[in-house]
Amino acid sequence: MRRVTRNLVLAILAVLVVLLALGALPGLLKSGDPYYLTATPVGEAASGTNGSSANGTVTNASIANGSAVDGANLSERAYPYTTAALDNATDGEPGQSQPYWRGPVGFKEAFTHSPFDEVNALRGQHPNATVGEGVRVARNGTLYRVAVTQ
Fold it and tell me: DSSP string of 5-66?
């Protein structure tokens, strides 16, 4: 093999190793206190079309009018933190997802899925369900406020 060809092959292999490391490494980076996605029960989901009052409090949030996200239709693959928090919530007690640590200098956020991504996606898809920094999610007749906590 010619020297130039060998160097090119080695350079390509080095780039592949670096790209593989970038795919695996961000998940291992941990910095600061962990963040959780917390689902706090706030009431019962209404079946009608009433919504929120002018000050943002829930009067009768429902899936029908878009003032709550339908938690039964959330994909476990697309929303792993949200579904885990909803699964862990029991009879008036809040549920938390698995912990998520931010990486140093924002490196990790560019390569991994986070609870912040999920809340932002739900807020973007269901703007009427937004409440403060969280979002209202209705599941099995219970209304939850889902938000990132530390």
Answer: HHHHHHHHHHHHHHHHHHHHSGGG--EEEEEEEEEEEEEEPPSSS--B-TTS-BSS--TTTT
How far apart (Å, rounded) are the C-alpha atoms in residues 117 and 79? 9
3-state secondary structure of 111: coil
Is 72 a domain residue?
yes
Q: In this structure, is residue 34 part of a structural domain?
A: yes
Q: How confident is the model at residue 125 (pLDDT cuts 50, 70, 90)?
A: very high
Residue 35 structural domain:
30-149
Q: In this structure, is residue 19 part of a structural domain?
A: no
For 28-78, the pLDDT digits (tens) are: 667 778 899 999 998 787 665 444 443 344 446 777 666 888 888 899 999
Q: How far is CA 8 from the centre of its chain?
A: 41
CA–CA separation, 127 vs 15, rounded Å? 42
Q: Compute the distance between CA of residue 81 and CA of residue 107 in angstroms, rounded to an integer.
A: 20
| Number of compact structural domains in the chain | 1
